[in-house]
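Field notebook, page 694. I keep forgetting to write these up properly, so this time I am using the form the group agreed on. The chain and the ligand, adenosine-5'-diphosphate, are recorded exactly as supplied. Prediction of the bound pose follows.
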Amino acid sequence: MNNTFGMNTIPDNDNQRVGSLEKYQIFNTPAEPAFDHIAALAAKIFQVPIVLITFINKDEVFFKANIGLPGVKAVPRAESICALSILHQDPTVFTQPLLEPFIKDLPLVTGPVQLRFYAGVPIFNKAGNALGTLCLIDRKERTFSSTEAAILQDLATLVSNETEARLTIIQQKQRQDQFKGQLEESEIRFQNLVEQAPIAIAVFQGLSFKVLQANQKMLKLWNKELDDVLGQPLLTFRPEMHGHPYLNVLHEVFVTGESHASYEIKGPVMIEGHPESYYDVMYQPLKDDKNEVTGVMAMLIDVTEERHGRQREQELNEELITANEELFAINEELMHTSQERLKAEELLRVALDTASIGTWHMDLDTRVFTASSRMNELFGFDTGYKISEQDLIRQIDPAYQEHVKRLAFESVRKGAPYRVEYPIIGFNDQKIKWLLAVGRLYDNPKQQVRHFSGVTMDITEQKQDEIRKNDFIGMVSHELKTPLTSLKGYIQMLHQKAVKKEDEYSSNALGKVEKQIIKMQTLINGFLNLSGLETGKIKLNIKEFDICQLVSDTIEDVKIGSSTAHEFIPEPSEGVMLVRADRDKIGQVIYNFMTNTIKYAPLSKEVNVSCKQVGEHIQVSVKDYGIGIKPADIPKIFDRFFRVDNLYTQHISGFGIGLYLSKEIIQRHHGQIWVESNPGEGTTFFFKLPVSGN
Ligand code: ADP
């Protein structure tokens, strides 16, 4: 009871009252016309020199409106009569303060204010808490009628209403601020989204299509910086769009409020420098809260890759059709080389044996696999049994399972044609058969089809012929290998003797014989490999090694094995490059590339050999400056028994298996092999293998 009144002036609910007052955020705020106006009105009605509108917190009485006490903003609660006024609903009135023991000694009465009359009523909020007062003070004594009391209370109600209205405004503003904050946040989020989107986006405002926003991808297409375009109408920085149909489309979207989409539009809508690009174009109207169009968002999705992919698919399709035609009417023209005769015969046989062609289909979205009943027959399952993809894989010779799965996977992933030969064991009959499966990915997003399907046929007979032939070659080669090895040993011995004896003629002749033997050995090894590869017997001896070292070692081997004037120039290697592979087999590929330069590019004095890391692969290349290879021959160069047929090559010995074997070896290592050549300028053979650890 620490006050000048000698009585309790703090109501029981004071904490709640003060808490409630805080919400109004009115304490210690500047004067406001609405409150001043009511105070002035009261001063006029009651003809008093001092009118206060106060708000009372825990310790202070703050004057929100103050008429007659200039400069006083607040007084201590303990000394304020208003602190008494909030204790009662009715007006607190002192008409003769000097006679009132509670207040006669207050500074207000004794000090310069000279208070001789006081009438105050509480200002209640909606919840019924007395937040402060409206009070009248006079310097002379006066009476206060009940009518006056009623008017004062009415005025206090006005103050209450004003206080509530003020709170509503504050709350609205708070909500607005919060909303603005959220809006800003969502705008930032939107901007980030626009920036990071894998598509080109621009936001245009109004019918002049002023740029509000454009992400980096769009700026790149426009070939502009953000500062050049921001706030600029589209036509000012892209005058070439004048009269362009797409400008009309933009207008239409703006006017109708309906979005637009068109697919695979060629580059000119965009900018020069992207002539080969194709885009899916989308225009989306942007509407305000009254559903009126304020702008357009343009989105461009680069679909060049997909389109090229589809072109490849079409080419593939055409190839398949051609293959079919070959199947039924063996084209005379195709018959003139042994290679093509082989192919045609194979296709004819397949065609004649139509009964053993099965079809299969895998829906890539649902993963549902379906197969024709011929497939049951081929894989030895009961007719009527619904075979799964797993059923089929299980019947494949385990040595081939991974290979088949990998090729199928690659075909689905890259859209590459799927063609694979593999042996199986029939489920019921346990019969061993060779099958040929051909298929491809059908992926057309527009028609929403995505499946991998194809045909499988029985090629056991052809295969058995081939196996028999290969076995024979293998056997003969093997038989030749042993005597040749001892022959080489003897010759080397004789050669050394002749050198020692300084018998120049013999040593020369024996040196030549030795080289011929090395050639024969290479050939025989090739045949042995071939027969091994064909029957799937080839075993890779995988170890980690430095492939650049192998390249240098092979250069030495080639120099020893041939009397060539070729200079093999290794590109400086960038250090150790480890791969996990069969060292001998990879060496064989490099050896083949190098010796081919001697055979087919004899005038190329220099041959550049390089070994370097390209991304996740190590790439080896052998470049000569010889006659080159005709573009028409390039697709066939890695085929079995393929030899370029020209006057020059006719006189060079070879069977067209070196590059075929090289391809098989590289493919079995999950690598890639290819050639680039310009007739008359030279040829570069390449292969690449995954870096060890990948
Ligand atoms: P082979 O040498 O046994 O005939 P390859 O498979 O090694 O078989 O080569 C196939 C064909 O590719 C050769 O007959 C030749 O016409 C061509 N060829 C290979 N390398 C080169 C090269 N560096 N320059 C030109 N033609 C080449």
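OBSERVATIONS:
- The CA atoms of residues 559 and 566 lie 9 Å apart.
- The two ends are 84 Å apart (CA to CA).
FOLLOW-UP: compare against the apo run.
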